[in-house]
Amino acid sequence: MRIMILLLAMTMYSPAIADDFIERGRKAQTSVKNLLSTHGGTVDEYLNEKAKVPVVEDLGWHTYPLNDGGFQVERLLLLNGTTKLSYRWSVESDGRITPENGKAISITKRCD
Question: Which domain holds residue 81?
Fold first, then answer.
């Protein structure tokens, strides 16, 4: 909801600014999806496999703007209809990605 209001306000003043904002958010999400997973393949491939388990409902990828110009990227899964599994990363405006919670840390392969 917060993003929709922000996007609506931005499009009223400058469609080019809104388009750039949306594109940067998409790029942040794609960068997270393409991170290497500790389980092999990419983070996106690993989480897509988890989402195929019958007791898991996939709530999808979500991207939120941060005050510093970066984004928070999150993948949400619902286990047994009650337990929310959240995997969160922050993507800084310079492209650096940091896993933010234990679930994201546990599946993200370090590239250093």
Answer: 20-107
Would 32 be classed as within a structural domain?
yes
Is this model's pTM higher than 0.85 or not? no
6 belongs to a structural domain? no
Number of domains in the chain: 1
- In the predicted model, what is the mean pLDDT of residues 37-45? 97
Q: Which of 64, 75, 60, 61 is nearest to 22 (CA)?
A: 64
- Which single residue is written with the structure tokens 């941060």? 66
Q: Measured between alpha carbons, how far is 80 from 96 in angstroms, rounded to an integer? A: 34
| CA gap 81, 64 in Å, rounded | 24
> With 0-12 CB in 10 A as exposed, 13-18 as middle and 19+ as buried, what is 83?
exposed
